[in-house]
Every structure is written in C-alpha cells, then in structure tokens.
Automatic annotation (TrEMBL):
Transmembrane segments: none annotated. Monomer. This is Heme-binding protein 1. It holds the Pfam family SOUL. It comes from Nothobranchius korthausae. One of its GO terms (molecular function) is heme binding. SUPFAM superfamilies: Probable bacterial effector-binding domain. May bind free porphyrinogens that may be present in the cell and thus facilitate removal of these potentially toxic compound. Binds with a high affinity to one molecule of heme or porphyrins. It binds metalloporphyrins, free porphyrins and N-methylprotoporphyrin with similar affinities. One of its GO terms (cellular component) is cytoplasm. The gene is HEBP1. Belongs to the HEBP family. It is found in: Cytoplasm. Keywords: Cytoplasm.
C-alpha cells in the first residue's frame, strides 16, 4: 500500500500524449476532438457491482501494479489519465459492467512488468479519435453522467460516436484535493 501511495504522490508521472484535431464550442460548451496513438494499458474489469461500489477497489489495484506490485517489483510511475470504460443503459445509468485502464508509461511500453494480481491484464489498445469534454472537481457516477449528457446534447443526434460505451477519465492522483481535471470521452466512429 505504501508503494502505491509513494508512487502516486512522488513517482514520475506523464500525461498520455494526443493530437488536438479541433477545438470547438457549441451552445457555450467547449470540447476537443483528439487523436490518441495505440498503446498498451493495464486493465481490470468488474461485473455485477455498481460504479460507486467498485471503482475505488479497481483503481487501487491498478495503482498498486504500477507502484511496484508486479513480478519485477518495478515502480513505473503513473501515466494519466485513468480511463474508466462505462456501458450506459438506455436511461443513462451505468450498467454493472466497467473496465478501468491506465496506460503503461512510455519507457515500459515495449515490455510491461508482469502483474501479480491475476485480475489485471495487459491490453494493446488501438489508436482512437475521441470527443473530449473537460470538467473539474471530484467525479463520481452522477458527475460523469451529467457531463456525458451535456456532451451528447452538444454533439447532437447525428454526430458519429459510439453510444453503447464511453470513457470517464481522471487526470489526477486520488489524493489531490483541488484543481482536479476530469473528462468524458466519446469514441468517434471511424468512417
């Protein structure tokens, strides 16, 4: 546990790099269209429990992994954001299925340390284009849902994005008390 906290507070951190394709404002709501390159992620998933019941546990497991709880005992630093894939029902409420991922830091992309926790998987994710909406504060399910609804209304019904899932992103260590950055990402459907 101490390794996870030490790594989160004092370890190296990097933000996942991306290319801004456009910055737009519609009806007073500003968002970006971004392109992310393919990368390896450490992921963990859950089914059967609500977002609020399980998110802390899943994030802690990933932070322990990158903090040195791996076969090589390598504290890797942190690559933000932590990305939570959610699968909303028709009414917008999150289903009881989610996947939490954190990009493996750049210097470990070629050969990520092997997880000790069998629930953690190393996954190669393809490049993606997203609509990104940023907001502050501590974010839970209700805040992410509200911002996703705001982005949905801003983009409109004809925008080419996946509606069966989206990403809830946190760019800050869990213990950061203020100036927090969160985002909702909608995955653009490729033509």
């Amino acid at each position: 546990m101490f390794g996870m906290i030490k790594n989160s507070l004092f370890g190296n951190s990097e933000e996942t790099q991306y290319k801004v394709l456009s910055s737009e404002t519609k009806d007073g709501v500003s968002f970006e269209v971004r392109r992310y390159d393919p990368a390896k992620y450490a992921t963990i998933s859950s089914e059967g429990r609500t977002y609020e019941q399980v998110i802390g546990e899943l994030v802690r497991k990933l932070l322990k992994y990158i903090g040195g709880s791996n076969e090589q005992e390598e504290a890797m630093g942190t690559a933000f954001p932590i990305i939570i894939t959610v699968f909303p029902r028709n009414d917008g409420v999150f289903s009881r299925r989610l996947v939490v991922g954190i990009r493996i830091p750049s210097i470990y992309q070629q050969s990520p340390p092997t997880p000790i926790d069998s629930a953690i998987r190393i996954e190669e994710r393809p490049g993606m284009t997203v609509y990104a909406l940023q907001f502050g504060g501590f974010a839970g399910e209700s805040e992410y849902r509200a911002e996703a609804l705001r982005l949905t209304r801003t983009l409109g019904e004809t925008a080419p994005f996946q509606r069966k899932q989206y990403f809830c992103c946190s760019f800050d260590p869990p213990l950061k008390p203020y100036g927090r950055r969160n985002e909702v990402w909608f995955l653009q459907e490729e033509p």
